[in-house]
Write a structure and sequence with these properties.
Blueprint lengths: L6 H17 L22 H17 L4 H18 L2 H18 L4 H13 L3 H14 L4 H14 L2 H14 L3 H13 L3 H14 L5 H16 L3 H14 L4 H13 L3 H14 L3 H13 L3 H16 L7 H4 L4 H10 L3 H14 L4 H14 L2 H11 L7 H13 L3 H14 L5 H12 L2
Helix pairs in contact: 2-3, 3-4, 3-5, 4-5, 5-6, 5-7, 6-7, 7-8, 7-9, 8-9, 9-10, 10-11, 11-12, 11-13, 12-13, 13-14, 14-15, 15-16, 16-18, 18-19, 18-20, 19-20, 20-21, 21-22, 22-23, 22-24
């Protein structure tokens, strides 16, 4: 016998269905979590991350005014952006959450720090200062406020301010966040041993396997690598892979070690493994150089185009209005790889105008001028890059080449010898520049 569907039963069914839809909907104004792809989806933390974020979305669906949950979700998205490398997606999603929160709670210090963190991720360093300073004024003991202010001032080249903020940060809470910042400040001021000691403390303060801890371990490896200690560097990268098998930056580190040992096939495999995990532009940059030095010019050109696509988008649009991310320093370097020196100079100048005191920006502009044959301008900017007495080997070698081109042969040879004494494993593509100089004499 057929059951007759009454108006009442239909109403009950529709009400139940609407309740179910409402219960499990994602709030319209909140960008949902993206599913991870490839090996990242197999990591042990992924299930927990999905569950935690799904729960937060459900809470906000029922209680959109719950700003504590909104803030937790914002920080979860920031972390997911770091893990997946999908900063364009998660930076945008996080800013939407935070702008909504700060419209209702403009004096929420933790939300201000979160917004500054996203702006730093987008390389909007000047814009990150205001929310960081406001957060510090609201809560003088909020460690994250000093963290974002340290980072912003570092990137802008306000090094003395960065030192003061980092000193305050470590005095309030000596932990992985403060130690890692102290390490970088020591590094750019020429204290490599002190930088290594501080980064060791950062690693020890973290929990093995967490993204933040393994990031610090890879930075420690890079410090050893820059010092020419390939054995210690390799140990750091291997330990990072052991603790976090999906950490792309550790595989890239192993790729650089194999490249330094002239094991180009093994190096390529590591760089490709890193790219499969996260298609980061820096990995394509490493692979481009590997193809160049192994005389695979067509592959190098294709790889450089891939790097350009990562930085500017597949449509070739280099506007931060589209991607939300300033990448002019990186674009300058990729255009050098493509031998498009005019565009390289254009982007290097744009970045310089944003932050004229940053030593890495000055180094980039100096190197572009060097490649263009404008050695007077190259010398001008490399002097600014050396202002903090940084002893990074690539910087010293480039400075030495520039000095020799401008007739400062004694100073140039001194810088080149110091560079190779510190790290005899520099890329052949850089060493060739000195051979070209000698051949042209």
């Amino acid at each position: 016998m057929k059951r007759k569907i009454t108006y009442t039963s239909l109403l009950i069914f529709c009400s139940a269905l609407l309740a179910l839809i409402f219960r499990y909907r994602t709030p319209e104004q909140i960008v949902p979590l993206k599913l991870r792809n490839g090996e990242l989806s197999l990591s042990t933390e992924w299930a927990g991350t999905q569950q935690a974020i799904d729960n937060m979305l459900l809470v906000l669906a029922d209680h959109p005014e719950d700003q504590k949950t909104r803030l937790k979700l914002a920080y979860a998205y920031i972390q997911e952006g770091r893990i997946t490398g999908d900063h364009a997606y998660y930076d945008s999603a996080t800013l939407e959450l935070l702008d909504d929160l700060l419209n209702k709670e403009p004096n929420n210090a933790e939300a201000l720090c979160a917004k500054a963190t996203v702006l730093l991720s987008q390389h909007h360093f000047t814009e990150a200062i205001a929310p960081g300073e406001k957060a510090r004024e609201l809560n003088p003991y909020l460690v994250s406020a000093y963290g974002v202010l340290t980072d912003a001032n570092l990137e802008l080249g306000n090094y003395q301010k960065a030192i003061r903020y980092a000193d305050t940060m470590v005095s309030i809470r000596p932990d992985i966040r403060s130690y890692s910042r102290i390490s970088y400040l020591r590094e750019i001021h020429g204290d490599i041993n002190g930088a290594i000691d501080a980064m060791k403390m950062a690693v020890e303060a973290g929990y093995p396997g967490l993204e933040q801890t393994e990031w610090c371990r890879v930075q420690l490896g890079h410090l050893y690598e820059s010092s020419g200690d390939l054995f210690q560097a390799q140990n750091c990268y291997k330990n990072s892979v052991y603790n976090r098998p999906t950490f792309a930056f550790a595989y890239a580190g192993l790729g650089r070690i194999e490249k330094a040992k002239n094991n180009y096939f093994a190096a390529q495999k590591y760089f490709e493994q890193a790219i499969q995990l996260i298609p980061d532009a820096s990995f394509y940059h490493e692979l481009t150089d590997l193809f160049r030095i192994s005389n695979r010019q067509d592959a190098a050109a294709r790889c450089a185009e891939k790097e350009l696509e990562c930085l500017a988008g597949s449509g070739g649009d280099e506007s931060a209005k589209v991607h939300g991310h300033y990448a002019d320093k990186e674009l300058a370097l990729v255009y050098l790889d493509l031998y498009d020196y005019s565009r390289a100079l254009q982007h290097a100048i744009i970045e310089y105008n944003r932050r004229p005191e940053n030593i890495e920006v000055n180094q980039t502009l100096a190197w572009v001028y060097f490649k263009m044959g404008n050695y007077v301008e190259a010398n001008r900017y490399i002097n600014k890059a050396l202002a903090t007495n940084c002893v990074q080997p690539v910087l010293m070698y480039q400075a030495g080449l520039i000095k020799k081109r401008t007739g400062e042969n004694i100073e140039g040879e001194k810088l080149i010898r110091a560079s190779l004494t510190m790290n005899p494993f520099l890329s052949p593509s850089l060493l060739w520049e000195d051979k070209i100089l000698l051949a042209n004499k």
